Backbone:
């Protein structure tokens, strides 16, 4: 009976530690990794725009572009690690990954879709 108790205690400890590890790797803005891509809090695929200069501190996709490629607006989370915030032309704050602002694609209608990857050879699925 002692051996079973020891195994149960060890299993419980392992689960608790695994939970702590996943909490520490939480990404800001509700961003998560799913099937090799970054997704927003709604589970929809996120994209980067080749014309946004990495580390440039701003988005060049504004006006009509932003209607098709809505920005992932930064929430109240403080960005950590490879995440940062860029300011948009309208003054809104947008979440960026590795210096590249993050966007959704209006033609993705369900979580997991990646129909924006490669559009006009300048849109890319954001990958961790």
Residues:
């Amino acid at each position: 009976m002692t051996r079973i108790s020891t195994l149960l205690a060890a299993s419980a400890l392992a689960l608790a530690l695994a939970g702590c590890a996943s909490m520490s790797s939480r990404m800001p803005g509700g961003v998560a990794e799913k099937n090799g891509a970054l997704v927003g809090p709604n589970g929809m695929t996120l994209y980067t725009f080749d014309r946004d200069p990495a580390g440039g501190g701003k988005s060049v996709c504004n006006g009509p572009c932003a209607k098709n490629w809505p920005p992932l607006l930064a929430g109240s989370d403080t960005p950590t690690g490879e995440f940062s915030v860029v300011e948009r032309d309208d003054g809104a704050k947008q979440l960026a990954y590795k210096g590249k602002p993050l966007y959704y694609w209006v033609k993705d209608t369900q979580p997991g879709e990646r129909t924006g990857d490669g559009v006009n050879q300048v849109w890319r699925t954001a990958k961790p």
